[in-house]
Design a protein that fits this description.
This protein has two domains: 3-232, Spore Coat Polysaccharide Biosynthesis Protein SpsA, Chain A (Alpha-Beta Complex), CATH 3.90.550.10; 237-308. Helix 5 (126-143) packs parallel to helix 7, helix 5 (126-143) runs parallel beside helix 8 (214-236) and helix 7 (177-189) packs parallel to helix 8 (214-236). It has helices at 15-22, 40-45, 62-74, 92-104, 126-143, 160-163, 177-189, 214-236, 240-271, 278-306; strands at 3-8, 28-33, 52-55, 80-85, 109-113, 120-121, 156-159, 196-200, 203-204, 312-313. The strands form two sheets. It has an eight-stranded mixed beta sheet, sandwiched between helices. A two-stranded parallel ribbon has the order 6-9. Strand 1 (3-8), helix 1 and strand 2 (28-33) form a beta-alpha-beta unit. The protein has ten helices and ten strands. The chain starts with a strand and ends with a strand. With 314 residues, the chain is an alpha/beta fold.
Length: 314
C-alpha cells in the first residue's frame, strides 16, 4: 500500500474528514502542518487514527512542506506516495485510483489534469484558467513533452525512485512546486527509465479565497522555464539520442540573438534618428525570428520523438 501525504494550513474544518476518508486506504498517513493558527493540531492529537504529524516551526510554504513530507516518506518502508491537500477538494475515487494504478502498473510518477469536461466542479476565476494555460505551455517548452497539461495540479503519485533524490529549489518553497516537480521528473527520465502517466481528475471548488499572487507566479514560471530550457540543452548534449536536438536548440538561440540585434537596429533608426536602412533591418528581424521559431519547433519535435519515457494518458 502507498503512503498518503496531506499538506495542511488552517484546515481545521476539513482535516478530520480528509483523514477519516483515507485512513483505510493507505499504509501510512503523513500530515505536514505549515504552522496553522487554527485548531488543526488539537484535532489531530485527539484522533484515534495513526498519523505521522509534523508541524513546521513557522510558515514555510506549501513547497517546502511538501519537501519535508517527502523526507519523512523516504525513511518509511513504503515504495509510493500520493500527495493531496487538507482542504478536501480532490475526489476520493481519483486519489485511490492513482494509487492503485501506480502500484499495479509500476508507475514512477502520475500527475493529474483537471482541465477537461467535468474536471472542474464549482467556479474558479478566469485568471486561473489563463494562468494554467500559460503554465501548461511553459512546462511543455521546459520539458519537451507536449502531452503534459495542468502543471500546477496538486494531486500526484510518486514512487521512491523519484522522491529519493528530490531537492526543491527555494524559488518554489511557497507556490508552484508541482511545476518544478514535473521538470525534475522529466530531466530525471533522461538518465533513468521512468514510467510516467497523466490522469484526468476532478477538483471541487467552494468560495475559498486564494492567497496566490498571480503576477509573482507568472514571472517565477517564466524565469524557471528559461533556466530549465538552457539546463536541458546541457543535459541533452550528454546523450547521443538528444544531441541533434540540442544542436538545433543552440543554433536557434543564435538566430534569436540575430533577431534581437536586428530589432535594436531597426528601433534606433526608426525612433532615434540614426541613419541606416530601416526597412532592411525590419525584414531581417522578421526573417531571423521566423528561423528561430522554426528551429525551436523542430527541436521540440525531435526531443519528443526520441524520448523513451513518453507520458501515458490514463
Amino acid at each position: 500500500m502507498s503512503t498518503l501525504l496531506i499538506l495542511s494550513y488552517n484546515e481545521a474544518s476539513t482535516i478530520r474528514t480528509v483523514i477519516e476518508k483515507y485512513c483505510n486506504n493507505f499504509e501510512y498517513l503523513i500530515v505536514i502542518d505549515d504552522d496553522s493558527k487554527d485548531e488543526t493540531k488539537s484535532i489531530l492529537n485527539n484522533l484515534d487514527i495513526d498519523v505521522i504529524y509534523h508541524k513546521n516551526s513557522k510558515n514555510l510554504g506549501a513547497g517546502k512542506s511538501f519537501e519535508i513530507g517527502l523526507d519523512i516518506f523516504n525513511n518509511l518502508e513504503s515504495n509510493s506516495l500520493v500527495k493531496i491537500d487538507g482542504d478536501d477538494q480532490f475526489d476520493k475515487e481519483d486519489v485511490i485510483n492513482i494509487s492503485k494504478i501506480g502500484n499495479s502498473q509500476d508507475f514512477d510518477f502520475i500527475k493529474c489534469d483537471r482541465f477537461w469536461e467535468g474536471g472542474i466542479q464549482g467556479n474558479i476565476p478566469f485568471i486561473r484558467y489563463f494562468g494554467n494555460a500559460l503554465a501548461s505551455f511553459l512546462v511543455k517548452l521546459a520539458t519537451g513533452n507536449w502531452k503534459i497539461n495542468d502543471p500546477l495540479n496538486g494531486l500526484f503519485y510518486i514512487s521512491k525512485k523519484v522522491s529519493i533524490n528530490f531537492k526543491l529549489t527555494k524559488l518554489f518553497y511557497r507556490y508552484g512546486y508541482p511545476f518544478f516537480l514535473i521538470t525534475h521528473v522529466s530531466n530525471l527520465s533522461k538518465y533513468n527509465s521512468l514510467n510516467i502517466g497523466q490522469y484526468s481528475n476532478i477538483v471541487t471548488y467552494g468560495n475559498e479565497k486564494s492567497s496566490l499572487k498571480a503576477g509573482r507566479m507568472f514571472f517565477k514560471l517564466i524565469y524557471y522555464t528559461l533556466k530549465s530550457y538552457y539546463s536541458k540543452i546541457k543535459i541533452k548534449m550528454k546523450f547521443s539520442t538528444y544531441q541533434f536536438s540540442a544542436l538545433i536548440d543552440i543554433i536557434s538561440q543564435i538566430f534569436m540573438l540575430f533577431s534581437f540585434y536586428s530589432c535594436y537596429k531597426f528601433v534606433t533608426i526608426r525612433y532615434f534618428s540614426v541613419f541606416g536602412p530601416q526597412g532592411t533591418w525590419f525584414i531581417l528581424t522578421v526573417i531571423f525570428l521566423i528561423i528561430f521559431l522554426s528551429l525551436l519547433i523542430v527541436s521540440q519535435k525531435l526531443e519528443s520523438n526520441t524520448t523513451p519515457n513518453k507520458i501515458t494518458i490514463l
